[in-house]
Amino acid sequence: MRLLYSNILPLKLGDGQTAFIDYFMDAVHEADEIDIAVGYVSKAALKELQGLVDEAGVKRVCLTIGMYYHEGMPEGTYNVAAALNEDWTGRGIGEVRLVRAFKYHGKVYVFYKNGKPFSAVVGSHNLGAVKLEASNLRQYELSAVTEEPKELQEISAHVRDIMLPRCSANIADLRDVPLIREVNRALVDQEFVSKVTPEEVDAYKKRMTDVSFELPLKVPEDENDQSMMGSNINVCYASGRKRVWWEIEMVVSKSIRDLPGYPLHQQPFMAVTDDGWKFQAWTCGQNNKNLYSKDDLKIMGRWIKGRLVAAGLVEPVNRVESDLDGKGVITHKMLNKYGRDTITLTKTDIVTKTEDGTELEVWMLSFLPESRHQQEAEDEIS
Q1: Residue from 289, 288, 291 nearest 300 by CA
Q2: How far apart are CA 39 and CA 67, in angstroms?
Q3: pLDDT (tens digit, 9 = 90+) per residue, 294-350?
Q4: How far is CA 48 from CA 10, 43, 84, 145, 182, in A?
Q5: Taking all residues of the chain, what is their mean pLDDT, rounded to a whole number?
Q6: Phi-psi region of 305 (alpha: psi -120 to 50; beta: other; left: phi over 0)
Q7: Residue 122: Cβ-neighbour burial (10 angstroms; 0-12, 13-18, 19+)
Q8: Spatial CB neighbours of 97, under 8 Å, sequence gap ≥ 6
Q9: Tell me, what's the pLDDT at 371?
């Protein structure tokens, strides 16, 4: 047995000492099978592991995660883990599992070659250690590695026990994983946008009226569907004027616009979102067909697309013209994973005043997923 260290000042690696991340990278590239059982993971580490497995040509891999089934799983981490599981199971090389029987807080990595374990790491390094971020950059961990055959067999047997159905299940088979909603940070510090506390949101919800409209998000079915690829909330992909990824168009059908009580043309109102943001919006355009954020067209996009980013389903695209594969295109497939494909616009009986004394009606915008165990608290998830 020998130790694997973090490399953080003032405890910089000494002569003869090995960093966990360096040993892990080497072992992955030597292995043809890998078993991992850890308490926690991160979105970045999951993506890093996926890339390493592909790069090294690993033939079988199983990642078992131990704490989230009982504590709740950040929605972004859940969706990235589910996508990783879909990739591995689809290619027949592995899976992602969640421990159900108890809270599992171990951190174990077993590497195999030709059917036999050749190395096992046990210690305090969760999977996040394979991709350092601001949240764990200064977090010191210590693990031990063994290459002794009897110890390898014992550790391998332990991890394989955790993988059995009596302890864990494939993430795709679990419908009751409690999800923790992550904060949409795309609206943080944006001009013309204010933060609203959960208590204030609840107060607005209690004042909602029966005047409500369900607005479908018009998007292509999947990445292979060319219809609506450059319109509505994907308008940034349209030819012609260059737009940033956050800019969208909300085009509302005539059948909805003609309903009684729909907001009047170019009469601003205060929009309060169900996840705690406030900004001015209005309906405009030819025949009143568009629903926009008033002061900046990107605000509505930062609210809608920002929710999908927070949920781990898409990454913002800095230069849309370079996104030749359309990875930033919002699709029905993506919205189905998110759990919602409509925006609800509901009038309240509240009238507020702006700083210059202008009276504005208050409407609520809703786009939180309608999932079965979604936790409503905006827990301090970063």
Answers
A1: 291
A2: 5
A3: 999 899 999 999 999 999 999 999 999 899 888 999 999 999 999 999 999 999 999
A4: 27, 9, 11, 21, 21
A5: 93
A6: alpha
A7: buried
A8: 62, 63, 64, 65, 163, 168, 169, 170, 171
A9: 55
